[in-house]
Amino acid sequence: MAFFFTVLGWQGELTNPERDKCIGLEWFTADALLDRMADYCRVAMHDIDAGKSFSVYGW
């Protein structure tokens, strides 16, 4: 089970506190997601972009 949230307001810089687990962080629009993204995350991002508030994947 995974939960995804839409943030309506945020300030600050994007930081990577776990550099031993992740080499970098970047912002992407829903139509420009990378190919190497996990499938369930890609589906969630597209569902959020489409305005869906709930979805199931793999059930």
Structure notes:
This protein has 59 residues and is an all-alpha fold. 19% of the residues lie in helices and 0% in strands. The chain has one helix and no strands. The chain has one helix at 39-49. The model has no long low-confidence stretch (mean pLDDT 88).
Short note summarizing the structure:
The protein has 59 residues and is mostly helical. The chain is built from 1 helix and no strands.
Runs with pLDDT <50, length 5+? none
Order of helices and strands: H
Shape: globular
The main β sheet shows up as: none
Strand fraction band?
A: under 5%
Radius of gyration based on Cα positions:
13 Å
Task: Give the fraction of residues assigned to helices.
Answer: 10-25%
Assembly category: single chain
Number of strands: 0
- How far apart are the first and last residues' alpha carbons, in Å? 10 Å
Overall pLDDT, averaged?
88
What structural class is derived from the secondary structure elements? mainly alpha
Count of runs of 4 or more consecutive helical residues: 1
List its traits.
59 residues; single chain; mainly alpha; 0% strand
Walk me through the topology.
Elements (H helix, E strand, L loop, with lengths): L38 H11 L10
